[in-house]
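User: structure tokens for this one?
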Amino acid sequence: MLGTEKFMTWIDVDQAIKGAQAPISFCVSDWSLSLTDWFHEYARSLPWRELWKSHRCPYHIWVSEIMLQQTQIKTVVPCYLRFLQRFPDVEALASASEGDLRAAVAGLGYYRRFRLLHQGALWIVQRRQQFSGWLWPQSRVEWLEVPGVGPYTSAAIASITLSEHCGLVDGNVERVLSRIFDIRLPSNHPKLKKCFERLADRLISTSFPGSYNQSLMEVGQVFCTVRAPRCESCPVKTFCQAYQANVTHLCPQPKLKKAFEQIRVSVVIPQTLRGEVAVVERKKSFSPFLNETRGFLLVPFGEQHAVLSDPVCHGEVRHTITHHKLEIEVWSGCLRSSCILPDYPFSWLAREQVLSNLQTSFDRKVWKAYSEGLFASALSTGR
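Assistant:
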């Protein structure tokens, strides 16, 4: 049975990609035991791990997995502790206001994930009310029903809290497996996605799947780093073909780069004669980003006159978002009386209130250009 005997694994990469393809003799039980034994003795003390040990409440793991998306551990820890002080359980989170939630996760970015986390808390609470005795999802499949929980997050929660055998693949795992099996390819090569998923599922510990998944990621974070890996201290160096061949620097190869799309856009900042500024809740945009965030109104490049009366330009800003390079012209002015705005909720704020209500670095950059433009204009007119 897999996990108790040696098996021959064929890495699914053809000769043209990885030299001479050959079967790899690999003892799964020794591999997984080396990782989990090391993890149980030396795992870093992180708040969500300690809370899981003491409380066995999936809420703590769920919140941590959402916060750790696209965010480093050192950034997450203080915010995680602050978040749990405000929302110690799923009921508290479900009853939170949007303002309280936004304040609790300030600085983490990717705010849509926290809106979905809140929706998930509401879903959990409603489910508890509908089904007597029901507390939490009892499988990876059930966790997928929770708003905001996708395949990776459901597998992580299920493996840690339910000991379900769900392999995980993130950037750390891809790097470790590339070196263990001497795969000299970009980790995002299309041929490797399914390969990594199969390996993750086949190599997972049958006894401690949650500890195994965390240990594999921790090895990637602590030892098997992108640059200057600490191979001599690595608990699984005896399994590592790249280490034995002294080619860790070749595994994996630099990622395939996706071409950036150049986009020009105008941002309009409506304002009143009293100096109040409009901030909007963006629902849908003509652009493929910044949806469901609070900030300024985007319009197609050059169409500021359709929204503003006598618009004033505050300069141009450059910004990069997920393979899009933006050139943004920043405009302000009074709303045209004939303007038909998108169906966005607007808030009129005093200027000193605006910055604390902006959710993205994009909008903060726009606000800086606007503020500097006002200051330069005041200097030039002597006001």
